[in-house]
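=== Given protein ===
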Amino acid sequence: MRPIQMVDLKKQYEHIKRDVDAAIHDVLDSCAFINGKAVQDFTENLGTYLQVKHVIPCANGTDALQIALMALGLQPGDEVITPSFTYIATTEVIALLRLKPVFVDVDPDTFCMNVESIEKAITSKTKAIVPVHLYGQAANMEAIMQIATQHNLYVVEDNAQAIGCDYTFKNGTTQKTGTIGTIGCTSFFPSKNLGCYGDGGAICTNDDQLAARLKMIANHGQSARYYHDVVGCNSRLDTLQAAVLNVKLKKLNEYIAARQKAAAFYNNAFAGNPNITAPFVAAYTNHVYHQYTLILKEINRNQLHEFLASHDIPSMIYYPVPAHRQKMFESFGGSAFELPVTDWLTQRVISLPIHTELDNDQLALITGKVNEFTHS
């Protein structure tokens, strides 16, 4: 049996090696390392896949979030509603821009923003909502967009963990996550469902004027070369990474299906275990399983983590300290926020290996050991 990895990028590369190597060599032959043809091609291809008017590539997912908030023209002290149960990048860019993060609780089943918590958090200073499509399924975007419309708020989707996920509206229509709000942001970090071989990110919008502003901000605020209209930054997706992403984008649906197949194996194996709760999938979304995350009941998480490691099975805890309890947010009154579900989940969740290369022997070993420990 192959060693089990949280994400097996080496095995995945072996399957696409010929195409990836050829794409990289094309870039090397062209020597167009910045804004080369592969970047233009990927931008167009991703827009087609997501069915969104504008894709603005950038250097990483954190930059995508920062540029998105910069483009909205928010002022220091403006409030931005965000979940605390998320990777720190979502929230740190809010503070970096001297905006005020207002943390809200999450749904105990989906791990995504609790809609009722959003409404309670809105004040006269609220200007935007940043929902996170955590672990690979959508937040309740229809309800979030209704709240945003009612209160004239921007919505910036953090889609770093859910690219390719479909949201289903009450009328039966579907739309890709990251294309529903005012702006969508994603990351192409190597472990993502669509990952490059370094850092990369992208911003999406259907608003023509906003797209032009996003492009300017990502390129030193330039409207034309050497003409800088707004304060911007330097955030580019380099051509080599775009070349890799062009190859992998063609296989994204296949990769999602492989993750869903592995998740189905897990779900079946854990169905009779009363001490763990498998991922819940809301009726309005599918799940692309960037992570497969269990909730433990009366089980010592650290002991399970160590037990699995002793059998060469990796596991991860995302996220042991929520944003509102991080030192970096003390000056924003982070610890004053009462988020009982977030605090409860951060003590009980554990994520198992999930990726495109898992085979049944590996899955059987993982589930067998998890059940062995949690049933004992």
